[in-house]
Write a sequence for this structure.
């Protein structure tokens, strides 16, 4: 009888210990969930905090993309709040030297990912692609002049500068019926005469702060890596819509980065939503 009673006491003791452990676990879980609620899901947010990227990350068949995750994930926020510069991550893609036979394909890619861009067109090319130019504008992209024949304005006479800028502007306006408001001077070259003529013709000068050097490499993976390594929120990125490799790179970038909450906007939109300003004639803009 004593042994039976002892066994019963031992079983009751084990049951009590188990009960206490379960009780403590339940209390701990309740405290955990209460903490998350009171701190506004801070733990969940921290899980998506910016991360450090390795120098030797590989992606997609071992192609070297230094930032494989294409920037840190950001928690989506309301975009384009009226009168308030947006906190969203925005990048202005800009394309020089077109239009070309690749521009229509680029437009389809932009549409697919709800992205906009700004195009700086050479006047000599404009007459070959009037429909594409109209389609770009209809979709909401911006079109500016890249002079009539891609002249180096710093090495031109005052009369030549006036012609290059004025005629480059006019040939686009003749096709679209819309006022051209932007100039990107070839090679980024400008002097006081260029600035004065832009002022008189109502043109803002749009430069850049990221050069993908797609014109140099003409290699899709190199362009993607260059973009990822150099580009930050608020940047104006220089590319060219005259190379198929650039169009391929844009498709890769838009596919990944739009999933991460990035927005690809026109230059005007970038300054409107980031700084709440409109672009002024005769002033140069390089990105944030």
């Amino acid at each position: 009888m004593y042994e039976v009673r002892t066994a019963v006491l031992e079983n009751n003791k084990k049951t009590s210990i188990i009960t206490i452990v379960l009780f403590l676990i339940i209390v701990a879980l309740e405290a955990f969930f209460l903490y998350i609620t009171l701190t506004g899901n801070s733990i969940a947010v921290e899980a998506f905090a910016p991360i450090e990227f390795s120098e030797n990350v590989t992606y997609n068949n071992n192609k070297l993309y230094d930032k494989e995750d294409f920037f840190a994930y950001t928690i989506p926020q309301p975009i384009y709040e009226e009168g308030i510069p947006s906190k969203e991550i925005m990048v202005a893609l800009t394309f020089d030297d077109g239009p070309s036979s690749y521009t229509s394909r680029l437009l389809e890619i932009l549409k697919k990912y709800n992205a906009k861009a700004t195009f700086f067109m050479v006047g000599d090319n404009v007459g070959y692609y009037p429909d594409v130019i109209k389609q770009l504008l209809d979709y909401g992209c911006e079109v500016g002049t890249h002079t009539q024949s891609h002249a180096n304005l710093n090495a031109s006479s005052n009369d030549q500068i006036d012609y290059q800028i004025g005629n480059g502007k006019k040939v686009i306006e003749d096709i679209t019926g819309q006022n051209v408001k932007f100039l990107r001077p070839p090679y980024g070259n400008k002097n006081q005469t260029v600035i004065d003529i832009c002022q008189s013709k109502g043109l803002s000068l749009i430069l850049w702060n990221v050069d993908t050097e797609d014109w140099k490499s003409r290699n899709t993976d190199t362009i993607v890596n260059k973009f990822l390594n150099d580009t930050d929120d608020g940047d104006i990125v220089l590319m060219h819509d005259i190379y198929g490799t650039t169009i391929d790179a844009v498709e890769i970038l838009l596919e990944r980065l739009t999933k991460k909450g990035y927005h690809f906007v026109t230059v005007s939109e970038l300054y409107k939503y980031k700084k709440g300003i409109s672009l002024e004639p005769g002033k140069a803009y390089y990105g944030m």
Q: What stands out?
A: The chain has a mean pLDDT of 82.
